[in-house]
Design goal:
The structure holds 2 protein chains of 2 kinds. Chain A is an alpha/beta fold. Chain A contains 15 helices and 11 strands. Chain B is mostly helical. Classes of the chains: A alpha/beta, B mainly alpha.
Chain lengths: ~475, ~100
């Protein structure tokens, strides 16, 4: 069975092994399995061992903190000073960020160890990890299937035992959906909870970083370090960070859980629905009260999301111009040719599609019909949640409509891929925290249970998920990686 | 909503993306189907609804107008495709 971060903390504290030893174990595991899973774009072996050596010195000196010596993987969207940060794109194939993301700084300050940078859909645009320039990631449960996306490399690395925890980012489900498909736990915090500084932007009003790990308890440990105000992110929220671990053991007696009827309607796979029903029964046994709620505007969440996300991405990705950093075409004949060919060669198909839709919806005369309309719908979607949270403490439902699908199954039709995010997207539009935890297996492929909380109520989600995991063993299941 | 190949060429130009002539028909089909999906937004009436730019309607934070960055020109330019004497080089813009 894979070790949890909690267990590694204990192992290091008791001297069962050193950080160097446990780091070597993970590096060995990466060497064994990365060629078949493709979860890592860059493995930072030398740096990891240096950091582990330093961490062991800190531990010996009695100066360790929660994450000292813990090996972790980082999604290749977080800028890391001196090592490659590719964002899964040819555009940034050789990009060495000149600074660290806030999240990376925080892990370094605690002397956590970085194993490497994980594969992802190009610029976080995708739900299957097939759009990476560095090749698709394979699902460790079934290598013919996708791991989900866009944080698919992080999810697959954890599921395959190549890292005990990892960072991810979630714009429309990119932490929760791959966590569900790979059988791991992951939380997308409230918008503004984790700094976006140094996290390469896709859709700035939706992007949020968060942790992924085997358990909710490990997510709490990681989020404790990641969360907090950062003046360098203009939308970072000045909210105190509660003690997430302290809240894990609260009793769930009287917790009111809402089931949105729209999340159990047509389109949800029957076997997935059965697993979710069983999970809800488990919560009932733990003392929770279940009631139905309604999120009537869920049906327009996907078109709303794609208008907002594509408009913001076309704006954000205009910085990649072949001048200051990133890919530049050979022999440009003039400045326009330099821009057009550098971007045409540097970006993959899905990124180009999204930039073009964004450019179209923001072009003269179309703003009101698209972006402004989407922002109004965003208000309605957000109000649906506010009404539901007037009656319940958390909302529960499936993370995805089906388990992991086969690689190549949905690449021919972009819209069929977009529909994978039907249950996760509204949460980003409303800016709420959401998490996914393992809740069953269908055809030996994991099912994810999604828990959604009110603003800044990550503690409540982690608490509910932890209590669920104390009474179930889905999070302890691991695939036989070949 | 259905786009024409000329629309796609114009959008690609606006977005400064070189796309090959062979791929125009694929983009035309894919972008049109995405816009069909987007059209579903019109099923919901949004008269008198305030647009939402930030989930918690937070205001932009302001700061003192003071220098906070240090000069790191050499470090930043070390990753640039083409620099000379501290300047970024691009093809001639003005004849």
């Amino acid at each position: 069975m894979n070790k949890t971060i909690k267990q590694i903390q204990l192992g290091l504290a008791q001297g069962d092994y050193s950080s160097v030893e446990i780091t070597r174990d993970y590096l060995t595991r990466i060497k064994q399995h990365n060629s078949s899973i493709n979860a890592f774009i860059t493995v930072t072996e030398e740096q990891a061992l240096q950091q582990a050596t330093l961490a062991d010195q800190q531990i010996a000196a009695g100066q360790s903190t929660a994450l000292t010596g813990i090996p972790l993987a980082h999604k290749d969207i977080f800028c890391t000073d001196g090592t490659l940060t590719t964002c899964g794109s040819r555009m940034l194939e050789n990009f060495r960020a000149p600074y660290n993301a806030n999240v990376i700084e925080k892990f370094e300050a605690e002397h956590a160890v970085m194993l490497g940078k994980t594969n992802m859909d190009e610029f976080a645009m995708g739900s299957s990890n097939e759009s990476s320039y560095f090749g698709p990631v394979k699902n460790p449960w079934n290598t013919e299937c996708v791991p989900g996306g866009s944080s698919g490399g992080s999810a697959a690395a954890i599921a395959a035992g190549m890292a005990p925890g990892a960072t991810g980012t979630d714009t429309g489900g990119s932490i929760r959906q791959p966590a569900a498909l790979c059988g791991v736990s992951g939380i997308k915090p409230t918008y503004g909870r984790v700094s976006r500084y140094g996290m390469i932007a896709y859709a700035s009003s939706l992007d949020q970083g968060g942790p992924m790990a085997h358990t909710a308890e490990d997510c709490a440990i990681l989020l404790q370090t990641m969360a907090g105000f950062d003046a360098r992110d203009s939308t970072s929220m000045e909210q105190p960070v509660p003690d997430y671990c302290a809240a894990l053991n609260q009793d769930l007696g009287g917790l009111k859980i809402g089931l949105p009827k729209e999340y159990f309607a047509e389109g949800l796979n029957d076997d997935v629905a059965r697993c979710i029903d069983e999970s809800i029964q488990q919560f009932t046994k733990l003392g929770a009260e279940i009631r139905e709620v309604s999120l009537p505007n869920s049906k327009i969440a996907i078109p709303t999301y794609y208008v907002v996300a594509m408009a913001e991405c076309s704006s954000n990705l205009s910085r990649f111009d072949g001048v200051r950093f990133g890919h530049r075409c050979d022999d440009p004949k003039d400045l326009e040719d330099l821009y057009k060919r550098s971007r045409g060669e540097g970006f993959g198909e899905e990124v180009k599609r999204r930039i073009m839709i964004g450019a179209y919806t923001l072009s003269a005369g179309y703003y009101d019909a698209f972006y402004l309309k989407a922002q109004k719908l965003r208000r309605l979607i957000s109000q649906d949640f506010a009404q539901a949270f007037a009656e319940v403490d958390i909302i529960a439902g499936p993370t995805t409509p089906e388990v992991a699908f086969k690689t190549g199954d949905k690449t021919a039709d972009p819209v069929s891929m977009y529909l994978q995010d039907i249950y996760t997207i509204s949460v980003n539009l409303a800016g709420l925290p959401g998490m996914s935890i393992p809740a069953g297996l269908v055809d030996n492929k994991p099912v994810g249970l999604q828990l959604i909380g009110n603003y800044f109520e990550e503690s409540r989600l982690l608490n509910a998920a932890h209590q669920f995991q104390l009474n179930t063993d889905w999070h302890q299941q691991s695939p036989e990686v070949k | 909503m259905s786009l024409k190949p000329e629309d796609v060429k114009n959008i690609a130009h606006l977005a400064r993306l070189a796309i090959s002539d062979d791929s125009i028909s694929d983009y035309t089909r894919d972008l049109s189907s995405i816009l069909d999906l987007v059209e579903q937004m019109n099923q919901v009436n949004t008269d008198h609804v305030q647009p939402m730019a930030h989930p918690m309607d937070a205001q932009q934070r302001l700061r003192q107008d003071t220098v906070t960055e240090v000069n790191q020109r050499d470090k930043f330019q070390s990753i640039a495709p083409d620099v000379e004497s501290g300047l970024y080089r691009v093809p001639k813009v003005i004849e």
